[in-house]
Amino acid sequence: MPIVEVRSLSYTYPGSTKPTLTNVNFSVEEGEFILLTGPSGCGKTTLCRCLNGLIPNSYGGEFNGQVIVDGLVTTEHPVYEIAQHVGLVFQNPENELFCTSVEREVAFGPENLALPREEIRKRVEESLAMVGISHLRDKSPEELSGGEQQKVAIAALLAMKPKILVLDEPTANLDPASAQSVLNVLLKLNEESGVTTILVEHRLEMVAHMAHRCAILNEGRLVLMGKPEDVLYSDEAEAIGIGIPKVVQVTKALGINKMTGKCPLTSWSLADLLRVWKK
Amino acid sequence: MISFEDVSYSYSPGRYAIEHINLSIDKGEVVAILGENGAGKTTLIKHINGLLKPQSGSVIVSGMNTKETTVATLARHVGLVFQNPDHQLFAETVEKEIMFALTNFNFPEDEISRRVNWALKEFGLLEYKDRPPFLLSGGERKRLALASVLCYDPQIVILDEPTTGQDYRQKLHLASLIKKLNSESKTVVVVTHDIEFAADFIPRSIIMSKGRIIADGDSEELLTNRELLMSASLIPPQLVELSWDLALNPPTIHFDELVSSVKKLLEGREA
Predict the structure, then answer these.
(1) Can you tell me the distance from the alpha carbon of B22 to that of A277, in angstroms, rounded to the nearest whole number?
(2) Whose CB has fewer CB within 10 Å in chain B, the N or C terminal residue?
(3) Amino acid B7: pLDDT
(4) CA distance A65 to chain B (A)
């Protein structure tokens, strides 16, 4: 059974006449890593808000269709309950961090669930360790770098033990090295702990090879969803104008995908392919 | 047009945000400033529009010493677009946001409406003109911040991380806009983490690390230098990585060059 199901979802913000999402249908299996991309304003952030129930529960507006996450129909449960199943990470970690120490920040969620002290302590330890920031526990989030802050935000969500993580451009404000390190954390959580991951990202060259499937939204509609290599090598993806990774462009320009039947997504896999093929 | 002479600045004693910066940018140049978070990039550009005054050394912009010139005067010459549009946007509607600087600089009314219309169209914001800025998407707010600065036509344009949250088309649009500014002899300084953008569109790069400039020169030369990129914690552009993986000599940041070198490599196989 899928862990996320989106059925005929259409949504219009209050006061707007144009729908932001139109008839979106897809499902995600437990443990999948989904890369969601599409032009700016296509509805990616709106879709993320639908996945954790912020829409329609906190936003109002005209909501049609159904979103079911971990068995919960989002319109029938309050956001705090859905939050224990779906963790949402925003673009700007400054907007969500407010405690005086990393440890407190991570403990905040479980404290609010009124869990026993020992359980809270255990969850904080585990979450910090999973993200690799145990050494930052006594620091104030303010004095951390952007990448570290984003890891604190992720750890704070993990302490709620969600089965699903939804991340809305978590690396947008980070330098490349920090971005890579946050993405590595996500990959590890997915591979080792089986956290179902839905990642919104523009920098496809950094993440395409990590995902099981790639979905493209355009003007509020889900236009493509499939294996990253099938999606990114498609003519439709090129026409929509997402940033097709250079490796894909080079491979296509040389016709290597047609000649070998292989669709590399990283420079090393293209280089390997060329080396083997050259012999 | 812009010159830094041995400029240092520190926010807290004992730790310099930028240190011994020497830099000269000519009129009409387009320059990228690259470097990891905390390298001092934003501190450096805040010296160009006088938001920060050098604690030692001096900064001369369009012939004015920034220490002796008000931010208001400098602002007419230097347009700074912040990284986070929310630090900049405040008006009730998109249209009013764009009008704000124009009104403050006492442009005549017909000129204001002409420029506002231009900006709304140029940045794809026409349909949102009566909306509050905070209802726009992240990418749209970013474009509004850009529109509200470019509408008053400053001679020097500084863009702090202009590509974050922007999709591929908008990046191309931004690139063509930079080209246009350049053809009007404007000076453009782009602070960016987007090394692909710098490699594709910006001829000169300045690389910063730990408050200092560690390299300044031709983008292709700098961005194909492995040791340099590593010491600045920069991840190489994909084409450069591919050049290295294929042992292409010389490595390149240009798509067409790379494709033709790989072609040659493969033809060698057939011969």
Answers:
(1) 49
(2) C
(3) 97
(4) 23
Q: Which domains does chain A have, with CATH numbers?
A: 4-228 (3.40.50.300)
- What pLDDT shows up at residue B271? 44
* Cα B141 → chain centroid: 17
Per-residue model confidence (pLDDT) at position B269: 57
Identify the weakest region by mean pLDDT among A76-85, A92-101, A140-149, B161-170.
Answer: A92-101
CB atoms within 10 A of CB B250: 10
Tell me which range, A9-13, A176-180, B142-146, is most confidently predicted by mean pLDDT.
A9-13
Q: Please give the model's pTM, rounded to 2 decimal places.
A: 0.84
pLDDT of residue B38: 79
Q: Which two tokens stand for residue A60?
A: 């109002």
The mean pLDDT of B115-134, rounded to a whole number, is 92
Query: Hey, is the C-beta of A247 within 8 angstroms of any chain B C-beta?
Result: yes
Report all structural domains of chain B as residue ranges with CATH numbers, in order of start: 2-236 (3.40.50.300)
Q: What is the overall mean pLDDT for chain B?
A: 91
Asked whether A202 and A179 are in contact (CB, 8 A), the reply is no
Q: Which residues of B touch A169 (CB under 8 A)?
A: 138, 165
DSSP chain A: --SEEEEEEEEE-TT-SS-SEEEEEEEE-TT-EEEEE-STTSSHHHHHHHHTTHHHHTT-SEEEEEEEETTEEGGGS-HHHHTTTEEEE-S-GGGT--SSSHHHHHHHHHHHTT--HHHHHHHHHHHHHHHT-GGGTTS-GGGS-HHHHHHHHHHHHHTT--SEEEEESTTTTS-HHHHHHHHHHHHHHHHHH--EEEEE-S-HHHHGGG-SEEEEEETTEEEEEE-HHHHHTSHHHHHHT----HHHHHHHHTTHHHHHS----SHHHHHHHHHHHH-
Q: Which of residues 49-88 of A touch B (CB under 8 A)?
A: none
**pLDDT per residue as tens digits for the range A55-69:** 999 999 999 999 999
pLDDT at A236: 93
Inter-chain contact A243–B167, Cβ cutoff 8 Å?
yes
CA–CA gap between residue B162 and residue B167 (Å, rounded): 11
DSSP class of A41: T
Q: To probe the interface with B, which of A20, A40, A91 has the most B CB atoms within 10 Å?
A: A40
**Range among A27-41, B78-92, B161-175 rated most confident:** A27-41
Residue B165: which of A169, A241, A242 has the nearest Cβ? A169
Averaged pLDDT, A156-176: 88
Complex prediction ipTM: 0.78
Q: Which residues of B touch A267 (CB under 8 A)?
A: 238, 241-242, 245
